[in-house]
Automatic annotation (TrEMBL):
<comment type="similarity">
    <text>Belongs to the iron/ascorbate-dependent oxidoreductase family.</text>
</comment>
<dbReference type="Pfam" id="PF14226">
    <property type="entry name" value="DIOX_N"/>
</dbReference>
<dbReference type="InterPro" id="IPR027443">
    <property type="entry name" value="IPNS-like_sf"/>
</dbReference>
<keyword id="KW-0479">Metal-binding</keyword>
<dbReference type="GO" id="GO:0051213">
    <property type="term" value="F:dioxygenase activity"/>
</dbReference>
<keyword id="KW-0408">Iron</keyword>
<keyword id="KW-0560">Oxidoreductase</keyword>
<dbReference type="Pfam" id="PF03171">
    <property type="entry name" value="2OG-FeII_Oxy"/>
</dbReference>
<dbReference type="GO" id="GO:0016705">
    <property type="term" value="F:oxidoreductase activity, acting on paired donors, with incorporation or reduction of molecular oxygen"/>
</dbReference>
<protein>
    <recommendedName>
        <fullName>Fe2OG dioxygenase domain-containing protein</fullName>
    </recommendedName>
</protein>
<dbReference type="InterPro" id="IPR026992">
    <property type="entry name" value="DIOX_N"/>
</dbReference>
<dbReference type="GO" id="GO:0046872">
    <property type="term" value="F:metal ion binding"/>
</dbReference>
<feature type="domain" description="Fe2OG dioxygenase">
    <location>
        <begin position="175"/>
        <end position="280"/>
    </location>
</feature>
<dbReference type="InterPro" id="IPR044861">
    <property type="entry name" value="IPNS-like_FE2OG_OXY"/>
</dbReference>
<dbReference type="InterPro" id="IPR005123">
    <property type="entry name" value="Oxoglu/Fe-dep_dioxygenase_dom"/>
</dbReference>
Length: 327
């Protein structure tokens, strides 16, 4: 596997720009080119983002026995220890050298969908240990979803769909939205030895909204079939989110848009990041969009239900819960 030798120059989309056609054109080029881009003027203040990162750090600084009390459950909520996730088994010696915490959407108990796998309920640290922590994360979850809805309008327009196409009830009207706090402890990665902060993978869903600190590490490979693979660094951009497309959007767009391989290499520095994964509802059937196929370009993927696809991907990449002994 080739070392990363250059910095990727991503397109930057201003979500507040009044020049919608220009923004849509830039976004479409980014989605075709790499499936990665920055978004600026997104509406979430830097002060609040700093607060979210500070609260994330407080959680990961807790003793391991405290974090293990919140070990992720069968609904994929809670704490994931270092090495829990194995994203690239063909190249990794062990799991990812990162720890994380999953937070999803919670529905009222009287909602018939409340007990479905990806609608919660969440696990939360004791408020005596981390006061205000839950409220901060819930607020960020809500604000991040608003940003994703803005981006979804641009994506719809770039695919010659109505701007509100993805707001339909079965898509983002009742989405699966998963906030994940991540902490890379400072392990130095070595691809030749199979040691990674996060192994090479593509995300599973619609799009991912990524907030990062100022520590580098994220890399993308635009051509997963190249040999050797060529990796480019995606550098943090102050005040911006990194956005990347997921597998479901690649399926929806019939491969017009890219769900690109990416990984994280640790340099010896601690690193924090906060990806926000957004997918359609459990029962949404992901199949080729009407504007993305023709007689000459027939659908490349069979239809699949979102829940089915997501459960399989989680099963393939996470350790069995039976391997852990909870305190």
């Amino acid at each position: 596997m080739a070392d990363c030798k250059k910095v990727s120059k991503l397109y930057s989309i201003d979500l507040s720009s009044p020049h919608i056609p220009t923004s849509v054109s830039l976004l479409k080029q980014a989605c075709v080119d790499s499936g990665f881009f920055y978004v600026t003027n997104h509406g979430i203040s830097e002060e609040f983002l700093d607060e979210v990162f500070a609260e994330s750090k407080k959680f990961f600084e807790l003793p391991l026995e405290e974090k293990m009390k919140l070990l992720r459950n069968e609904k994929h909520r809670g704490y994931t220890p270092v090495l829990d996730e194995l994203l690239d088994p063909a190249n990794q010696l062990h799991g990812d050298h990162k720890e994380g915490f999953y937070i999803g959407i919670e529905l009222p108990e009287d909602n018939p969908d409340a007990q479905r796998t990806f609608y919660g309920p969440n696990l939360w640290p004791d408020s005596d240990i981390l006061p205000g922590w839950r409220q901060t994360m819930e607020k960020y979850h809500q604000q991040a979803l608003k940003v994703v809805r803005k981006i979804a309008r641009f994506i719809a327009l770039s695919l010659d769909l109505d701007a509100n196409y993805f707001e339909r009830p079965e898509i983002l009207g009742n989405p699966i939205a998963i906030l994940r706090l991540l902490h890379y402890e400072g392990q130095v990665s070595d691809p030749l030895k199979g040691i990674y902060g996060a192994g090479a993978h593509s995300d599973y869903g619609f799009i991912t909204l990524l907030a990062t600190d100022n520590v580098s590490g994220l890399q993308i490979c635009k051509d997963k079939d190249s040999n050797p693979q060529v990796w480019e660094s995606v550098e943090p951009l102050k005040g911006a989110f990194v956005v990347n497309l997921g597998d479901m959007l690649e399926r929806w767009s019939n491969c017009i848009f890219r769900s690109t391989l990416h990984r994280v290499l640790g340099s010896g520095q601690e690193r924090y990041s906060i990806p926000y994964f957004v997918l359609p509802s459990h029962d949404c059937v992901v199949e080729c969009l009407p504007t993305c196929h023709s007689k000459e370009n027939t659908p490349k993927f069979p239809p699949i239900k979102c829940e089915t696809y997501l459960l399989q991907r989680y099963h393939d990449t996470h350790a069995e819960l039976s391997t852990y002994k909870k305190p």
